[in-house]
Amino acid sequence: MSTATHKLLKGATGEWEMVIGMEIHAQVTSKSKLFSGASTAFGGEPNSQVSLVDVAMPGMLPVINEECVRQAVRTGLGLNAQINLRSVFDRKNYFYPDLPQGYQISQYKSPVVGEGEVIVDLDGGKTVTIGIERLHLEQDPGKMLHDRSPSLSYIDFNRCGVALMEIVSKPDIRDAEQAKAYVTKLRSIMRYLGTCDGDMEKGSLRADVNVSVRRPGAPLGTRCEIKNMNSITFIGQAIEYEARRQIEILEDGGQIEQETRRFDPNKGETRSMRSKEEAHDYRYFPDPDLLPLEFSQAFVDELKAKLPELPDQKKARFVADLGLSAYDASVLVAERESAVFYETVLDKLGNRARDGKMAANWVINELFGRLNKEGRDITGSPVSAEQLSGIIDLIGEGTISGKIAKDLFEIVWQEGGDPRALVESRGMKQVTDLSAIEKVVDDIIAANPDKAAQVKDKPQSLGWFVGQVMKASGGKANPQSVNDLLRSKLGV
Amino acid sequence: MTDLTSLTLAEARKGLAAKTFTSLELTDAHLSAIEAARVLNAFVMETPDRARDMARAVDEKIARGDAGPLAGIPLGIKDLFATKGVRTTACSKILGNFVPTYESTVTSQLWRDGAVMLGKLNNDEFAMGSANETSCFGPVGNPWRREGSNTTLVPGGSSGGSASAVAALLCMGATATDTGGSIRQPAAFTATVGIKPTYGRCSRWGIVAFASSLDQAGPIARSVRDAAMLLRSMAGHDPKDTTSVDVPVPDYEAAIGKSVKGMKIGIPKEYRLDGMPAEIEKLWSEGAAWLKAAGAELVEVSLPHTKYALPAYYIVAPAEASSNLARYDGVRYGLREQGKNINELYENTRAEGFGAEVRRRVMIGTYVLSAGYYDAYYLRAQKVRTLIKKDFEDCFAKGIDAILTPATPSAAFGIGEKGGADPVEMYLNDIFTVTVNMAGLPGIAVPSGKDAQGLPLGLQLIGRPFDEETLFSLGEVIEQAAGRFTPARWW
Predict the structure, then answer these.
(1) Residues from chain A contacting residue B103 (CB–CB below 8 Å)
(2) The domain A434-490 is classified under which CATH number: 3.40.50.300, 2.30.110.10, 1.10.10.410, 3.90.1150.10?
(3) Is this complex's ipTM strictly greater than 0.85?
(4) What would the pLDDT profile of B115-165 be if each residue is shown by its tens digit?
(5) Min CA distance, A55 vs chain B (Å)?
(6) Inter-chain touch A93–B102, beta carbons under 8 Å
(7) Active-site residue numbers of B?
(8) Using alpha carbons only, what angle is made at residue B15 by residues B14 and B19, rounded to the nearest 5 degrees?
């Protein structure tokens, strides 16, 4: 772990440290299910995407979907993790109506991906490294529908058998902010890779969060697991609540019972689901219907060679090549779509070396600021990457000032259009013609003799003259030319 | 036309090709035989209309000269094989009137090659049993009786219906499955030929699973040649079963009559059990002598872990079964017994739907996989399995071509005679056959003689992986020497 600081919680008897580990269930992006050819499309009519294998008809057998294996390996590579060339599918046995086989096919002792790590970006450009314990493939169960009848439950098996990656972190997370940032970063990596769409509302990404507390530096405390969280905000709230609850018990001289809990977002609290004694005995054993999953190093190498650039690499490149600050770079790469937008702007710039950094400022401050204000995301931006690069070109080449550019941005946002043509047609061009500016400068000096006399002693008051000139020119004068002219006329 | 039922499959093929009779005539002869033999309870579902439709269709093909290798041959299908549109129950109440919308790979290949389905055959519930007494449709009668006795004997199990129907000339051949001896033991009890091919030789897709790592389909037939013909159609790689193996299917029939001169036949000393009946011992020596006379060399071999095979099998098989049978929960198909909540529904359905032996094995399997017991039972049994497999590998590495053993420790016994008080008494029937499943090897049972009471006995030949051909060659030598055995008709 890097040395980023984390939040300690203050109890009545002193400070407490949280120890958090997570199991993320990420739905694999694939056309068909993990062991059957049925479609994985979201939102189909109930039970319209179900094969004989999915509902465990007698004599049906699973056949591994190779694309899901590739996706798991890609994800493992994205987590800088050990890829296991041989892994084993096991059966996790339990009865539930949404689980037709009476067991979930999962990976228990030999997962497809072993240890890795994720660099998590925190506020202020700091980072923390969170260890990955493992990643394995498993089947999603179906979905119980309890609201269709007063006396019966229905089951939709469309989701049943869809591939999930369970990504287990090491207990390296130390507070709610880190936990949220960890999920955000994992989600981002998988979206870059195209291995999981990360859509938490549709259930594509869910998290089980293990929380315990201890005195800083003390041995690990007893943990509780909060199941099935599907919002990053709720994850933060649940951790805060759960840690406080545990501290209260410990400070009252009590003991933490290891148990499974659920978070109630309406009340903002966690509640017990089942105790350790009620926990299932899953009777894991290797699935005799499936051979061990084996592939060659060449298979891994080929996938590795075709991996897209990931957020950390992109960030490093932005810093090294364009001179962006680490913070700006991490903001730009956080979402794949933002990075794509920014890079499209870069591609269209007339002078990338000169204006690349300015483009980053514009994307982050003007564009993201405006989008946030209107609750839109980058894919719905009214200003295209091409339009924004047009505006930045105009600033970079000195055709318009930064101030005019903001007006231009507003026009493009509201009305659309080609920035260069707009500048022409609306007379927004910056005036660099000295003779045109000179007249204005002379008038202002003549009207303010006192101030002009003071400038020699107080050079900083030159700014007042610049402001006056710019104002009089309607912002169109080139600030540098104005500055030069004033200096020579006022003799500073 | 009744003598049509006494033909072997190979003879019937000739008659059909020569247009001496039609498939419809052959099929009708067997349908009549089935009707007259209902007392045997071999068929749990007769499909005469479908049989005649299939036969007529094949007759047209034969007329056009477009006939497959099994064109017009009427077969019985063990009720473990899913048959599209025909009730498939694994002879368990829990499947109720389940009618699959799909056809098992093995049966679909038989139909592809022109075979005709007469109906579904009785078996032990979920193939769990060695006497066909655990079927929800009741026990099956063996066409063989002790000389001078009217006692109905068991045909063995779990493929008791298949063996009984083939022995009683109700079908020209039958599909069967073998998890610990379920093809070879009933074949031995009924003087039929049964082969369990190498694990992975036949697709398991569409066959109700008992223990996935041991289950394998194979034929029961009237002769070694017939078994070879049937296996050729049943075998083959299936992308829908990833444990099926992609090796070409040879023309097994070509192995019949091939010289066995110079082949090394292993006689495993560990199969000489204490208290083994003298007539089994005699049968074994006789079989060895026949092979020797045909030019094979006999070699004493050692399979040192044999004695651990049965206990290990009764851990591995129930463990897998306990998980495989979890899908029968009353939620989606088959029997449902209501309850106040979902757990009661499960309990009521499974208590009502499963018979005593199935419940016993589900409980044993659940126990051996439980936390705290897994290492001591399941894991250890898997290690034993590896050692058993290695015993055979060592043997074959020394140049042994096949191993000769008795098929069963005794001849057929009476219904209800065994296993009433102690299930292990019944489990001991599989003592010579389970090792073969544990090692995934091919094994054939060939009728070889009779005991003092006139009941048939069989010998088993165990081969190298995917070397079923050698078993057919050797099996036919025994068949030629021992002659064919047909039961006197009493039904």
Answers:
(1) none
(2) 1.10.10.410
(3) yes
(4) 999 999 999 999 999 999 999 999 999 999 999 999 999 999 999 999 999
(5) 8
(6) no
(7) 78, 158, 182
(8) 120
